[in-house]
Amino acid sequence: MRITRTVQRVAAAAVATAALGVFGIGTASATPQNWFGTGGCEAVEDIQLGGDHHEYMRIIPTANPGHCLFGVFDRNAWKWLGAAGATPSSDPSAWYYDGPGQSLQACLIDTAHNNTWACGLIN
Fold first, then answer.
1. 41-50 and 104-110 beta bridge pairing
2. Do the beta carbons of residue 37 and residue 117 sit within 8 Å?
3. What value does the mean pLDDT of the chain take?
4. What is the 3-state secondary structure (H, E, C) of the chain?
5. What confidence score (pLDDT) does residue 50 get?
6. Prediction pTM value
7. Largest separation between any pair of C-alpha atoms in the chain
8. 36: buried, middle or exposed (CB in 10 Å: 19+, 13-18, 0-12)?
């Protein structure tokens, strides 16, 4: 009897959560990720969503054989964001605002192969 009630409560909570999501009430923001890479350099473009548009972006390096630069590029201003711009660090970048009017893109440069660029989606 107790197990049945617990299952019913879990099912009711799942239905209520789904209903709230359909109506756009209390929905949590999602974090989609786009993988990209070239020449052994690999990274993930991490996007924080809020509503129907992107709000923040960062780059997470996932493979760096020692000849890779990583960063978030502002396509409107045509410049790297952050104090150091593209960096050899394997640490995730800071989060950058990517809301309406912004055009950011997570990119990496493979310095061992003629500075070949690879980038995630333009947001």
1. unpaired
2. no
3. 78
4. CHHHHHHHHHHHHHHHHHHHHHCCCCCCCCCCEEEEEECCEEEEEEEEEECCEEEEEEEEEEECCCCEEEEEEECCCCEECCCCCCECCCCCCCCEECCCCCCEEEEEEECCCCCEEEECCCC
5. 75
6. 0.71
7. 68
8. buried
Q: How many CA atoms lie within 13 A of 63 on its CB side?
A: 9
Q: Tell me how far apart the alpha carbons of residues 91 and 87 are, in angstroms, rounded to a whole number.
A: 9
Asked if residues 49 and 30 have their Cβ atoms less than 8 Å apart, the reply is: yes
What are the structure tokens assigned to 59, written together? 């780059």
Is the confidence at residue 52, as pLDDT, over 50?
Answer: yes
Q: Which residue has the higher pLDDT, 2 or 102?
A: 102
What is the residue whose two structure tokens read 């980038």? 119
